[in-house]
Amino acid sequence: MNKNIDITPFPGYIQEEVSDMGESEQTQLWKQMDIDNLNMYLKKNSDYGAANVLYMGTPGILIRIWDKICRLYSLFGIQLPNFARLFDIRKEQIKKDLTFMLGKDVDESWLKALHSLIDLHFSKLEKECRVDFSKYSERIPQNESILDAFSDLELYARIGNISHRQKWGR
Fold it and tell me: Which of 80, 94, 98, 170 is most buried when burial is the number of CB atoms within 10 A of its CB?
C-alpha cells in the first residue's frame, strides 16, 4: 500500500517513514499508527462506502464501538454482567415480596418495610452490575488480535467524529 499520503494537519510530518527526529518512541509510533489507520480506513471504506454509516448514523457507530469494547473485555478476562438476567431475577424477587406483603394490612410500618425491601433489592442489583477488573488477565485471541480491536475502536471513534460533524460521505 502507498504510504506517501499527504497528512497536512501535521506540519513537518515525514509521510513515507517515521524517522527519529529526537522524538520519543511514543510520538513516532503515534505518527506511524496515523498512517496505518488512514490506510486501513481507505481500504475498508472502499469495500463499505458511505452508506453504512449514513444509514445507521450514531447508533450504528455506537453498536460497532460496543462490539469492540465487549471483545476487549472478553480477551482480557473481564466478565460483563448479564443485565437482563439480573433485572429479571430482582424483578421476580420484588414481586414475591410484594405478594407476601399485600396480605398484610397497609399501614406506615408496612410501607417502611416495603421501601426497605426495594432498597435492598436495588442495592444487591447495583453490586451485581459492577464490573470486576481485579481478574484482568490477557488471553490469546483465536481470530482478530487485540491490537486490531484497539485499531478498530480508534477508527470507529474517528468515523463518529466525522459523522457527528456531518461530513461523512461528503
Answer: 94
Q: What is the pTM of this model?
A: 0.60
Helix (H) or strand (E) holding 56: helix 51-75
Going by the DSSP 8-state scheme, the letter that residue 133 receives in this structure is G
Residue 141: Cβ-neighbour burial (10 angstroms; 0-12, 13-18, 19+):
middle
What's the CA gap between 168 and 164, in Å, rounded?
8
User: What are 127's three cell numbers?
Assistant: 453490586
Structure confidence by residue, pLDDT tens digits, 137-154: 777 888 888 888 888 899
Distance CA 67, CA 158 (A): 16
What is the C-alpha separation between 48 and 40, in angstroms, rounded? 12
Answer yes or no: are the C-beta atoms of 84 and 76 closer than 8 Å.
no
> What is the DSSP annotation of 7-38?
-TTSTT--SS----SS--HHHHHHHHHHHHHH
